[in-house]
Design goal:
Length: 401
């Protein structure tokens, strides 16, 4: 920021937040409304990249803290980042109600390669520079190149969404769209759905630390959003049901039923959020302990089968399923074919067809809708392979049943 604005820091911050929020949320009318004031404070830069910086473990650090504490933590992060990026043409602000700050970067527009390198360098400078100011890490997401205001709005959504991939990529990393070859982040309906998905994968890896981090973040955000005790308890009970259903391999292990009942009783009788946290972590540790008695290959195979049976309605790629198993694509493909007798893609299709047949037989839902629901985006393809599998069309199958 220019020297002449330092004496009016508060106004600068207000205008910067206004300008950035106008663009990322598509309120271009308000951008025009304050156009002259934005120019006066040199805020209206030609944004080429939207960079979102997320404070890792923010919700864990701010657990049981008030809004003032959270604001101060995030404000300090913003100020530290601004010190680091003074050599770049940027504007930056905090994102209200989140663990993130956002930066607009203007490049010299020399070439695509040079501008890309500039955006990469600023992110690396931030990661390196913050080590002087804080002990915790941050994760950084960079959008694709922006040419106009519409691109800025898309770029914000892009960078914000990318940060959901720290689960698979790890904390303290730089994430870019062109590096994203594996994506297991679906269009979840809620924070709880995201947490369940993440927890299932991490428990499958027997990763206690990351499993507990997911629990910490989930409960911290529930607390921050002032969810009442009944809602929190019912949500955690649903999570326990999902985990038991996922890891109780075809109902063969009766011990899971005992774990399930005991865990539900503890959640129902919990008096505080700390009681829920303790009970949920105990539950996860018991599940992981039970998995530890099995061989790695057996766990990997069972994890993939459970994953397919739960998420067959979504797009599941070989990249993704091998990631869930913890093997390379080639090793996973060989292992799956050896133990299942068919390859992964054929197994996935069979699971989808079986579930489609159940819905066609037992519901009044439209057949086209059912094909989409079980993971087939192309109805003609669905109809073709359904007929090959069941020797009749989906429509005839419904009529005959």
């Amino acid at each position: 920021m220019q020297e002449k604005f330092k004496k009016d820091q508060l106004l600068y911050d207000i205008l910067t937040k206004e300008y950035i929020h106008n663009l990322i949320y598509g309120d271009f009318y308000r951008t025009k409304l304050f156009k002259e004031r934005f120019k006066e404070y040199e805020i209206a830069i030609e944004t080429n990249y939207v960079i979102t910086v997320m404070y890792d473990d923010f919700w864990k650090i701010c657990k049981n803290r008030d809004n003032q504490f959270r604001y101060n933590v995030k404000r300090k992060l913003l100020e530290d980042v601004r010190k680091i990026i003074t050599d770049y043409k940027t504007i930056s602000t905090t994102l209200t109600g989140t663990d993130k700050i956002i930066i607009f970067l203007e490049c010299e527009n020399n070439s695509i390669e040079e501008d890309f390198a500039t955006s990469e360098k600023i992110a690396k400078d931030i990661l390196k520079g913050l080590k002087k100011y804080m002990t915790n890490s941050v994760s950084i997401a960079i959008s694709n190149f922006c040419n106009n205001n519409i691109d800025i709005m898309k770029g914000y959504q892009e960078s914000f969404s990318l940060l959901e991939n720290i689960f698979t990529k790890g904390k303290g990393k730089i994430l870019r769209p062109n590096e994203e070859k594996i994506s297991i982040n679906y269009d979840y309906k809620s924070l709880l759905d995201k947490s369940i998905h993440s927890l299932l994968v991490k428990i499958g890896f027997k990763d206690i630390d990351e499993s507990e981090n997911i629990i910490d973040n989930l409960l911290a955000q529930m607390t921050y959003k002032d969810m009442n005790s009944d809602y929190i308890k019912s949500s955690i009970i649903r999570l326990i049901v999902e985990v038991i259903s996922y890891f109780n391999r075809e109902n063969k292990d009766q011990q899971f039923s005992i774990i399930y009942i005991q865990s539900i009783e503890k959640i129902v009788s919990a008096n505080t959020i700390d009681d829920i946290e303790k009970s949920l972590k105990e539950f996860v540790n018991i599940i992981i302990s039970n998995l530890s008695t099995k061989s790695e290959k057996k766990i990997a195979l069972e994890n993939t089968i459970s994953y397919i049976n739960k998420y067959y309605g979504k797009e599941i790629t070989l990249d993704e399923i091998s990631l869930v198993a913890g093997y390379s694509k080639s090793h996973f493909s060989r292992m799956f074919k050896k133990y299942m007798g068919i390859n992964f893609s054929k197994y996935l299709i069979d699971v989808r067809l079986e579930n489609a047949a159940k819905l066609i037989k037992n519901s009044d839902e439209g057949i086209v809708d059912i094909s989409n629901e079980v993971g087939f985006n192309d109805y003609s393809y669905f109809s073709k392979i359904f007929k090959e599998h069941y020797k009749m069309s989906p429509k005839n199958y419904r009529e005959n049943n």
